[in-house]
Amino acid sequence: MSYCRQEGKDRIIFATKEDHETPSSAELVADDPDDPYEEHGLILPNGDINWNCPCLGGMASGPCGEQFKSAFSCFHYSTEEIKGSDCVDQFRAMQECMQKYPDLYPQEDENEEKEKSSKDLEATPMEAPVAKEQKGSS
Questions:
Q1: Residue ranges with strand state E in the chain
Q2: Which residue stretches belong to region Disordered (predicted)?
Q3: Which helix (DSSP H) or strand (DSSP E) does residue 124 occupy?
Q4: Is the pTM of this model over 0.85?
């Protein structure tokens, strides 16, 4: 027979083999497409943007959240032939806001990226002679 025990905030349920042999009597509730708390991904069934989607990485709620929402909404609903070409002002405002918070929105410039890639390349030749020595000694 199964039993429960409480450890702090956790509730531990022990189930026996017999408990699992009987079919579950739980009834599943149909998903409500209009449930605002249900996770639907980036776009909700009604076509709106789901600002709570984890895929946005919290950008919609940071100090530049309103600028992000404005720019992202503009891009999402853009009907221009080059999608988002009518959103330059919103993206500029978002970028200007992000530059005010470099700790929250770090920006790598091209020089940093080049330094990283050159360091990676410097590490690669060091490994190559080891591989040659191993091949030659066998």
A1: 3-7, 10-14
A2: 18-39, 102-138
A3: helix 110-137
A4: no
- Domains for the chain: give ranges and CATH numbers: 60-106 (1.10.287.2900)
Q: Which amino acid is at 120?
A: D
Residues 14 and 92: their CA atoms lie apart, in Å, by 56
Geometric angle at alpha carbon 60, from 54 and 65, rounded to 5°: 160
Instruction: Give how far the C-alpha of residue 53 lies from the chain's centroid of Cα atoms, to the nearest Å.
Output: 8
3-state secondary structure of 22: coil
Residue that is written with structure tokens 């978002």 in the block: 94
Torsion region of 10: left, alpha or beta (phi above 0 gives left; psi -120 to 50 gives alpha): beta
